[in-house]
Write a structure and sequence with these properties.
This protein has 99 residues and is an all-alpha fold. The protein has 6 helices and no strands. Helix content is 73%, strand content 0%.
């Protein structure tokens, strides 16, 4: 299997989303869906030989879990810079404001 096939299989099985939901302890909201996309991007840009070795040795789930934990709980991660920083600067507008 090549890198794209491996990531496609993971995506169809929604394994990354399952780990994101497990570590976040709640249903997938917009930010957590973004986190899953960041993890898929990391998988798609990593060394193909390394990803294939992880896949063939049955270690890909451990790698995904580590990436999810790092991105979710880290303070200087892509997820923190791109999603959380945006959320901190944003204001939620709900239906009670007539918009």
């Amino acid at each position: 299997m090549d890198r794209n096939q491996i990531v496609d299989t993971l995506g169809r099985q929604r394994r990354v989303e399952a780990f994101v939901q497990m570590y976040a302890g709640k249903a997938l909201d917009a930010d957590l869906k973004d986190l899953a996309q960041i993890v898929y991007l990391i998988l798609l840009t990593m060394d193909e030989t390394k990803l294939r070795d992880l896949w063939e040795n049955g270690e890909v789930d451990f790698f995904i879990r580590r990436v999810v934990r790092t991105q979710l709980f880290g303070k200087r991660t892509d997820f923190d810079r791109e999603c959380r920083a945006f959320s901190r600067r944003s204001v939620n507008i709900d239906d009670t404001h007539g918009i």
